Amino acid sequence: METLNVSVPPEAGELPMQTLYSSNGWDSYAWAFRAAYNVVDIILHNPGVAEDPACGPLIDAIAIKELFPPRYTSGNLVKNGDFEEGPLVFRNNSVGVLLPPIDDDDRSPLPGWIMESLKSVKYIDAFHYAVPQGRRAVELLAGKESAIAQVVRTEVGKSYLLSFVVGDGSNYCTGSMIVEAFAAKETVKVPYESKGTGGFKSAQLEFKAFAARTRV
């Protein structure tokens, strides 16, 4: 598996690079860390052994953006539900930013959310994509291998309604798509027929909590 090692001691991580998602030969990645010191070292390391030692991955346009802890908004138990708080998207970056798999929302480049996929998910902006609400959205790549999750506070026995929007980013991806949502013991599959020109539909999932924390 081709990876790029990223570290800001004492923290370290790997960016999976075996799949190229853009058509122009470049992918942008985001990796989050919590600073342990006022001054830190940033290390990018290619651990692979290429067939040709004169060849290797190109790295360009490195930036650091401060991320703020997500907060609840009135009437919404989901933190950062509109995805507005997230990694920096360069203005000239038309391919979005890949968020690698991570199981810890404290270290997530998308505050409040866990990327529990086998593959990366893509963070996109309204300047280059069709976004139904606000300036940011998330594109679930690689079919069933792509997923995001959040643990929300609930009260046992109470009923809740999960609402979300499904669409396409006007990036010429066409065909039948399905988003499956889970909460407590309930699930819903939302089909969407994409014409690749932008569009969206609303969906809902009603569930009853059986614990003080519910994974969505």
UniProtKB/TrEMBL annotation:
<dbReference type="InterPro" id="IPR006946">
    <property type="entry name" value="DGR2-like_dom"/>
</dbReference>
<dbReference type="GO" id="GO:0005576">
    <property type="term" value="C:extracellular region"/>
</dbReference>
<keyword id="KW-0732">Signal</keyword>
<dbReference type="InterPro" id="IPR052437">
    <property type="entry name" value="Pectin_Meth_Modulator"/>
</dbReference>
<protein>
    <recommendedName>
        <fullName>DUF642 domain-containing protein</fullName>
    </recommendedName>
</protein>
<keyword id="KW-0964">Secreted</keyword>
<keyword id="KW-0325">Glycoprotein</keyword>
<feature type="domain" description="DUF642">
    <location>
        <begin position="77"/>
        <end position="214"/>
    </location>
</feature>
<feature type="domain" description="DUF642">
    <location>
        <begin position="2"/>
        <end position="65"/>
    </location>
</feature>
<dbReference type="Pfam" id="PF04862">
    <property type="entry name" value="DUF642"/>
</dbReference>
